[in-house]
Amino acid sequence: MFIDDTIAAIATATGEGGIGIIRISGMHSLEIAKKVFRSISNKQPEEYPRTLCYGHIVKDNTVLDEVLTVYMPAPHTYTKEDIVEIQCHGGMIATKMILEWVLENGARMAEHGEFTKRAFLNGRIDLSQAEAIKDIISAQTAKSFLVAQNQLQGSISNKIKSIRNKVTEDVAKITVAVDFPEEDTPEVTYEELKESMLLCQTEMKQLLETFETGRLLKEGLKTAIIGKPNVGKSSLLNEILQEQRAIVTDIEGTTRDVIEEMITIDGVPLRIIDTAGIRDTEDIVEQIGVSRSKEIMQQADLVLVLLDLSRPLTEEDHIILEQSKEKKRILLLNKTDLPSVWNPNEEPSIAGEMVIQTSMSQKIGIETLKEQIKELVFQGQVIISNDGMLNNVRHKNSLIHAIKSSEDALDSIEQALPLDILETDFKNCWTYLGEITGETVSEELLDTIFKNFCIGK
Which residues contact 5 (CB under 8 A, 6 or more apart)? Predict the structure, then answer.
């Protein structure tokens, strides 16, 4: 990437729409805009910064489109560079033609996430805030949007920088003591360093504890519907979705592949997965589906196990109960509208389990199930803290490494090891914390992060 060149891209989503936006950023953005834009009033965008100017995009005396153009001078822009945005008619053609004309006049096509990357490199936002922008765009619910918005406003950054500043002060004290032992400087005591690192470690662990909830809000609670064939799994999916998403028949083995849909329960996203019925079968295709069902069950955050009250428990039922017993699960005793042939109170394999009696045909138990999911996973409510909630695996891993370094430092203190060894432990903690905000990060990692952004952002 050449930070001193000028980039351009379509900033709006592909497809039909009311308007399309072409964004230009860099030192030559105004110069390029003046080559392609003709104002109706003859007043130029630089005369009225941050004000929409009405006119046309003209190429070789041919009007490409009627537009509004705005010039935003640095540094108070998204990238901290000069930016020009051209608002044209939406759709595929107008935006593409204008972008091509802008590129012909000196701009370079922006890479994925390059506008946001420039905002980071130019110091307007840190790396955790840059990643929050992507989360805002891809948010599935209001709660996940709020977590990302808090992160963009600095909830994670402020917490990490506060901890890191304390570690920085300790590193500075240790470095002075190691490099200038003869100087008349305040003595660094092991007790003082221990107290400081314990405080930092506590704050890091408290932040790490928020990850699981943050991840579920961001990615969705992976919820697998598991059971033997024809027990009502697809009917359950349809009832939860309130639409006929899965085919329902009396023929066993109708569902041969997984069906995944996203729904929300009071703002909490669920990635709910209908799986093939688990049973022994000679059908090769069905065998593949059964194998995938077992894999998904083990990967799921929550398992909904369906049992049929109108049929005796079979070997398949007992295998499913055994294989899912270590998972967070809810047992659904289905087909309560039919005569029951077994008593759940007398079945030792489900003793003490969370059980809900359901009937898909009578729509019984669905609302109870939704409440139980919230209670089991989130203890009934999800509280979004303004102090920050981790939802990024990269942040989690860096924080785990920082905590490990803090443990190494405390071990070194307990053993009264030389200060130069403590210095290494403290610096490692400092480095890992800096990875979260981007203060200690490689160009390769930056490329990996921003290539997952859309072009134009």
Answer: 26, 28, 108
